[in-house]
């Protein structure tokens, strides 16, 4: 029933491996683009600190999942080559070299730029050994009352083996010696820095200064009290990163929920994949640490700065320093829903497109809450991947049950690193009477859909929300996503069949409008790319603009190469991984790839096909990656309202293609080159431009849309006159156009 269609997809002759960028190295170049935001002095200071923490957090997950997987391939003696021609072992060596450079840059900017700049704004990090007077007294009292009671020194000797440390826990390796016995061998012990305490301790300051002491340094300062009778020779912070992928044989598991719960517990004890140690630690101690974790010197990263910088995010959230942050932005309600008390009546008037975070996600929450209380609503069905446990979303489903409605929630238990949250609130939903379905064996439910069945005056009508992002009001404020509210009968019928497929034992029969992975999404996307290729060969207007998080699948890359060779202009906006090499003569000279890293995380997926002046736009939950197209239930859907198509073209795609501030152009070797503002060109920061429009539209009447920034209209597709056309210059934004093709408004 759930067999993948991968085998049925016609495969073109694969180009040489040199035509593909290594997936893992491409991801590291994405993280380098995030690191550039730390280096960018035009960013507000606390935003730079935020990006500093994000780079570290990204690397944590990269090692927990991707590096862990490569190590398993090496351990299994698998010598299979990737599409790029590298083995797992070769990829690991390239990763180690690239990450070493990245880590060195990351901590250099911390020491040389961020710390001095924070100090100028009276935000300081202090050494507890240098404190005097009232500061010392307060800190000593805090240590005795809050810290010392929860510390446990763990000796390392024949009777005390090296402790099993939790994934990413911060620890101190301490070297001690018996006093008076110079020939006595140094002994080691481990002190775990408690997770239950804040990593940064703020000293009381009445004068507006913010002074912090790192918890690890505070513990190190008091080690003599913790190990009386020993001379402390030194202490150094270290951290072990472990394999955190879930390994569940769903075919042999009678209870998927229990299997996931057990595997989450095992995650904390996975095999070590990385060792981070504070600079200055003696080589013999580092050697012992590597040996205890069964790691090699290639897995070692020496750090001159705070380990686990993700804890520095508290500075960005807790400090009242608006001058050091991005200007505040509060997403307005979309004009189509402003002042509307009946969301169902608004949807009946026409499809509603929401662009988050520039338009409020509260409209989606209102849709759910109204559905839960409306006496005319009969049933609610929803897929849930990452909600953050928002009480309003979960509460709406539980309230709907109380109000006598049939409620079904399709919960994905294997949403990476959100499994515990999903298990906890899924139990709450079940207890409230919601019919909870725990996904599908062998597949992740990644699509974002809510179906509301309502008895209107003229009969039963199905209202539908489809989106590119999760039902998570927190991330909806920082992720860019698109939502569609509609009651089109054909989409409603497709959604009904989709939910029946997810909850029952139905055979996939194909849908009218929705494109669903793993069944037909890939062949349909290939079909549309090849249609553009054929149009170009016939001299008809042909163009592809695709926005996504990642582009990995060789079949799609090969199809884009073929389109480029036929003269199709291809513009790709890829936030993260891109294995396609753009701008290669004879292969991809008509393909440009850009990545935008800014205030918000680019997360929406949009696919535009010119189709000989009969343009189509699809949006949805799927990236062009093997996991999305073969191992997940994904939904991509058409935008059929002409005004909404025009809005996506010129409010989203054209603005991002014109970005010359935050855009990075991906070069043929996979490295980024930052856009530059040329003389006479308008400065376009796409996210700032969309904020400007949202703020201007917040007081506009429904249907009134603010004009675009000069230079942010989508260029009509050229009419090819030969098989190959001159490629767009990789350092320039898309050429401005005075208008959009009228056919897009049909």
Summarize the structure.
This protein is α/β, with parallel strands linked by helices and 746 residues long.
Give your account of this protein's structure:
- By secondary structure, this protein is α/β, with parallel strands linked by helices.
- It has three domains: 142-312, Polyphosphate kinase middle domain (polyphosphate kinase like, 2-Layer Sandwich), CATH 3.30.1840; 343-503, Endonuclease, Chain A (2-Layer Sandwich), CATH 3.30.870; 515-745, Endonuclease Chain A (Endonuclease, Chain A, 2-Layer Sandwich).
- The protein is built from 19 helices and 27 strands.
- The strands form four sheets. Strands 14, 18, 19, 20, 21, 23, 24, 25, 26 and 27 form a ten-stranded mixed beta sheet that branches.
- Helix 1 (23-39) runs parallel beside helix 3, helix 11 packs parallel to helix 12 and helix 15 (521-537) packs parallel to helix 16 (554-566).
- The protein is globular, with a radius of gyration of 28 Å.
Key descriptive features of the protein:
single chain; 746 residues; polyphosphate kinase like; Endonuclease, Chain A; 3 domains; ten-stranded mixed beta sheet; eight-stranded mixed beta sheet; 19 helices
CATH topology of the largest domain: Endonuclease, Chain A
- The percentage of residues in β strands lies in 15-25%
Specify the CATH architecture of the largest domain.
2-Layer Sandwich
What number is the mean pLDDT?
A: 87
Count of discrete structural domains: 3
Point out poorly predicted stretches.
3-9, 247-254, 721-746
């Amino acid at each position: 029933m759930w067999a993948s269609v991968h085998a049925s997809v016609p495969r073109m002759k694969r180009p040489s491996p040199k035509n593909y960028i290594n997936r893992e190295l491409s991801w590291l170049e994405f993280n380098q683009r995030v690191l550039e935001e730390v280096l960018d002095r035009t960013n507000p200071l606390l935003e730079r600190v935020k990006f500093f923490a994000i780079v570290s957090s990204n690397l944590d997950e990269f090692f927990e999942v991707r590096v862990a997987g490569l190590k398993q391939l090496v351990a299994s003696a698998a010598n299979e080559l990737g599409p790029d021609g590298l083995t797992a072992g070769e990829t690991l060596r390239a990763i180690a070299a690239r990450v070493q450079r990245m880590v060195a840059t990351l901590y250099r900017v911390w020491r040389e730029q961020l710390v001095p700049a924070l100090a100028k704004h009276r935000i300081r990090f202090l050494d507890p050994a240098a404190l005097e007077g009232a500061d010392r007294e307060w800190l000593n009292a805090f240590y005795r009352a809050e810290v010392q009671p929860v510390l446990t020194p763990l000796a390392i000797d024949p009777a005390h083996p090296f402790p099993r440390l939790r994934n990413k826990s911060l620890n101190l390796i301490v070297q001690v010696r018996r006093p008076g016995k110079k020939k006595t061998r140094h002994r080691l012990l481990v002190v775990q820095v408690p997770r239950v305490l804040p990593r940064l301790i703020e000293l009381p300051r009445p004068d507006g200064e913010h002074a912090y002491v790192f918890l690890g340094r505070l513990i190190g300062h008091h080690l003599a009290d913790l190990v009386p009778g020993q001379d402390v020779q030194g202490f150094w912070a270290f951290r072990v990163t472990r394999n955190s992928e879930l390994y569940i044989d769903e075919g042999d598991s009678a209870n998927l929920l229990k299997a996931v719960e057990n595997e989450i517990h095992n995650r904390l004890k996975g095999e070590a994949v990385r060792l981070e140690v504070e600079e200055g630690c003696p080589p013999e101690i580092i050697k012992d640490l590597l040996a205890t974790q069964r790691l090699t010197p290639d897995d070692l990263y020496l750090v001159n700065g705070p380990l686990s910088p993700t804890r520095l995010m508290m500075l960005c959230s807790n400090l009242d320093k608006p001058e050091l942050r991005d200007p505040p932005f509060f997403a307005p309600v979309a004009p189509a829903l402003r002042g509307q008390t009946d969301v169902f009546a608004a949807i009946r008037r026409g499809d509603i497109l929401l662009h988050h975070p520039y338009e409020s996600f509260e409209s989606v929450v209102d849709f759910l809450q109204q559905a839960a209380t409306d006496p005319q609503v009969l049933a609610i069905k929803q897929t849930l991947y990452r909600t953050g446990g928002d009480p309003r979303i979960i509460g709406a489903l539980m309230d709907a049950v109380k109000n006598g409605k049939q409620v079904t929630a399709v919960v994905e238990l294997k949403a990476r690193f959100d499994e515990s949250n999903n298990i906890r609130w899924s139990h709450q939903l079940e207890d409230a009477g919601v019919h909870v379905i725990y996904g599908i064996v062998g597949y992740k439910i990644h699509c974002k859909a809510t179906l509301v069945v309502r008895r209107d005056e003229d009969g039963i009508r199905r209202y539908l929300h489809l989106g590119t992002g999760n039902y998570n009001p927190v991330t909806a404020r920082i992720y860019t996503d698109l939502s569609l509210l509609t009651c089109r009968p054909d989409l409603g019928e497709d959604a009904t069949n989709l939910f029946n497929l997810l909850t029952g034992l139905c055979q996939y029969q194909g849908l009218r409008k929705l494109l669903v992975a793993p069944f037909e999404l890939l062949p349909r996307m290939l079909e549309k790319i090849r249609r553009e290729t054929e149009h170009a060969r016939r001299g008809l207007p042909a163009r592809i603009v695709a926005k996504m998080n990642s582009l990995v699948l060789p079949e799609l890359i090969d199809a884009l190469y073929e389109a480029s060779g036929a003269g199709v202009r291809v513009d790709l906006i890829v936030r993260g991984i891109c294995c396609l090499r753009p701008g290669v003569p004879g292969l991809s000279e008509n393909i440009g790839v850009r990545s935008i890293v800014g205030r918000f995380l680019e997360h929406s997926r949009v696919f535009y096909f010119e189709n000989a002046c009969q343009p189509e736009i699809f949006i949805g939950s799927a990236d062009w990656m093997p996991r999305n197209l073969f191992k997940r239930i994904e939904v991509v859907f058409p935008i059929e309202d002409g005004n909404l198509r025009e809005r996506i073209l010129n409010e989203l795609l054209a603005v991002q293609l014109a970005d010359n501030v935050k855009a990075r152009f991906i070069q043929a070797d996979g490295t980024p080159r930052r856009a530059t503002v040329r003389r006479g060109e308008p400065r376009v920061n796409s996210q700032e431009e969309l904020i400007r429009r949202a703020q201007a539209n917040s007081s506009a009447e429904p249907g009134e849309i603010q004009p675009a920034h000069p230079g942010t209209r989508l260029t009509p597709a050229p009419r090819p006159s030969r098989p190959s056309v001159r490629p767009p210059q990789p350092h320039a934004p898309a050429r401005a156009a005075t208008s959009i093709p009228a056919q897009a408004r049909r």
